[in-house]
Each structure stands twice: as C-alpha cells, then as structure tokens.
Amino acid sequence: MKPTMDLSEALQSAFPFRRPLLPWAGYRLIEQSSIEDVWNAALCELGQSDRPNRRTIYIHIPFCANHCLFCGFYKNRAQENRMEGYVDRLIREMERQAHGLSEGGLVHAVYLGGGTPTALGADELFEVVSAIRRLFPLANDCEITVEGRVIHFTEEKIEAALEGGVNRFSIGVQSFDTLVRNKQGRRSSRKEVLMFLESLLARDRATVVFDLMFGLPLQTRQVWMDDLETAIALKPDGIDIYSLALFPGTPLFKAIKQGSIEPGASRQELGEFYAMGVESLSKAGWLHLSNSHFASGTRERNRYNIMIKEGAETLGFGSGAGGAIGRYSYQRDADLDAWSTSVDANTSTISQLSIADENESTRAMITGQLEQGRLDLTSVMRLRPVQLQLAKKLEEFAGKNLITNPEPRTALTLAGRYWSTNIRGEILQILNME
Questions:
Q1: Which residue range is the domain that position 151 belongs to?
Q2: Alpha helix (H) residue ranges in 246-355
Q3: Chain centroid to CA 299: how far?
Q4: Domain boundary residue, one of 292, 309, 326
Q5: Which residues form the Radical SAM core domain (predicted)?
C-alpha cells in the first residue's frame, strides 16, 4: 500500500508526542513486608523463566561531579566524604549474593553506569571490575563497559579499568560545541574533549562509543551537523544519537519553564534532527544496530543495551541499581545512607520488588524487535480476539510510513524507528498488555 504521509511528514507528525518506554508496565508491586521472603523464593527460580538465557550485570555508581541540567538521574555529588567506603560496600553486597545469583547461567554483558563511574578513583575502578570477574561466571567474550565523562577521567583511571578487564568505554559527549556543553553544566571545552577522545582511541585496547544528544538549547541544525561530522571523523567504534527528553524536576525543565534558558528543538524539529543523524552515519557506512545506536564495524556489538530491551535477566548492584531475575524486577535503595546502613548490617538492600504478569515475555519480544528495526507479530496474530485490530493498526502504521508493509512480518522505516515507542505502546494496548 502507498503511504499517505511522506517521510518528512511522518517524522514530524505521525503522533502528537513521543511516548516514553514504560518498563514497569505489567508489573505488580510486592508489599514491603513480603519482599525478603519473595526475593528468596525468586532466587530459586533462576534460569527457569521465559527471559533470554543470556544475562547481564549492572553496577550503579551514584556520584557526579555536578548536576548536568538535562539529567534526571543525579543523586549525590562526588565528594570524598560521600564516596568513602562505597566501593568496599558495593563489593560486599556482590559477595553476599554472588553464589545465589550465579546459578542462572553465564553473564554476557556488564555495565558500570550511574551517575558517573569515572568519579571513582583508579584503584576503585580496578577493584570493582576485578570483583565482578572473580565473583560471577562471565562468558569468554563478555562485554564489560564503563560509562564516563571527560572530566576527571584520567590516564591512570583508563589504565586501571583496562587492567581490570574493561573492554568497552561509553563516553557521554552529548555535544562537542563548547557553548552548548557549558550551558548544560559540562565543564570541558571542545578542545579538551577532542584531546581526551583522541588519546583514548589511540590506545586501541577497547571498544569506544560516544553518546550524542540532539535537541539541546543552542544546538542549531549546523551545530548538530558539526557534532555528527566531528564524531564520525574521530572514527570511534560506536555512536549513539539520543533525543533530548525533558523530565519534570530536572534543572533544565525548570529553567525552560522559568524562561531563564531558551527551549531546544521543537517536536517537529527533533524528527528532522534524528533523520540528519541517521543519514550522516549511513552515508559514512555505519551499521544501524538499534534505533539510536550505530557501529563503524564488527568490534562494537552494543550487547548490553540490546539484551536489556529483549528482557534479559540483569543482576543489579549498588545504591539505586535496578535488576530483573525470573519474573521479578527489583530496585536497590537509592538513598545512599540507607543503602550503606543495610550493607553494614548485612541486611537486604532491596527497597522495591515487583512481579511481572504472564505477558512479560511477549512484551519483551516486541520491545526487542522494535529496538532493532523490525516487527514480527506472527505469533500474537493467532489470537483471534485481536487479529482484526492488529491488522487495522498495521495498515495505519504503513499508511503513516512507519513500517514497510502492513504484514505481520515487517521492517520499520526511518520514521518508524524514531516513533518506535509509540508503535510499541499502541500494539501493547491492543493486546491489553500495557
């Protein structure tokens, strides 16, 4: 069928707004008084759920040098008195549960996120990664990522991470433009960022990925194009392009609302910025691994991020870390003092535990497919009550130039990739799974 929208129109107005991905949809909170008993029972179910057999580990480092205006995850300033003892407690938390959590199979991806993991000292980075390798069964080709910022990421820390076993660095560049960076609380100038990245890439001892963000205040089309051209010219192994998401409560949201900072790109412009990114990277020969992620070659796999979207089990450690085992999703206490007290007392650090309904594997299947630019509804189209509704919805998507054809097996167009969370939401609503 011929789409009624051209690509430009679809990118701008296929939906009135972009839906956020709601990972907690279909989960029911467990009462606080029952968390410990349910958690112990969950450990007995390891390896017996419908989740993919490959597993991941997420380590949360909840410290930052400062609060970047766009960030909704800031928790603790990276001060010595706040960070003292954190790594020791983190390792004790892992040691306490390593045996029980190791029963479910090999770990294929490890991610140190935050916060800012590179706020840790060199010795601390080495200790954390070494503990993970000592305590958990890692696959021979396990992807071990450290997320970091340019500020405070010293030569000594890079070497310590590499010696500990890190084989992938994800650097939050966001923009190379000094004015755009400074406006968001990023202290390093374009020159300083380039010097650091060139030095890191010259080592050639690990995969290097850049995160770029589009839609930031002062980031014009030309600035965004310069960001893309600069990133491509540096020849990293991977590049992520993310749209600015204004979360209520962030400093940027408040500043824009108060009028002290001008808004970034409009809703219509964001789709255009995404198209510019995809076109630039595709023309340069990059592989489109997921909706936001590109690889310059086979060295970059983006394994952790893809596995998370596919619903893989995740072992989460550290204050504020989230994870998922069996049918359960859990959150460790995000209050640093409360988490520290629990670790010291050798009691559970889990502050929230949820159980998924029977549709979680289907939700994860659809989410994982869409993230990789495809859709196969063959299995759910067999459900007679929703056959007609799904068929009509696929025709609507094809008419809006979001998918290539209105068949159960189809591929997302460029606009479909941009609006993938909306596509997911509307399919799950029909299936009564959201």
A1: 26-309
A2: 251-258, 267-283, 303-309, 336-344
A3: 19
A4: 309
A5: 49-284
What backbone torsions phi and psi does residue 356 show, to the nearest 5 degrees?
-85, 155
Cis peptide bond upstream of 416, omega within 30: no
pLDDT tens, residue by residue, 285-321? 999 999 999 999 999 999 999 999 999 999 999 999 9
Q: What percent of the chain has pLDDT over 70?
A: 98
Distance CA 189, CA 262 (A): 21
- 386 within a domain of the structure (yes/no): yes
Pair 201, 230: CB distance under 8 Å: no
CA distance 356 to 253: 32
End residue of a domain, out of 309, 333, 348: 309
Residue type for position 291: N
Kindly state the tokens that stand for 317.
Answer: 């450690």
* 48, 57, 214, 332 from 94: Cα distances, Å: 22, 11, 37, 12
Say how many C-beta atoms besides its own lie within 10 A of residue 388's C-beta.
Answer: 10
Entry pTM: 0.94
- State whether 295 and 368 are in the same domain: no
Q: Structural domain tally of the chain? A: 2
- The neighbour count for residue 88, using CB atoms within 10 Å, is 12
Per-residue pLDDT reduced to its tens digit, 102-111: 777 899 999 9
243 inside domain: yes
The half-sphere exposure of 79 on its side-chain side, counting CA atoms within 13 A, is: 6
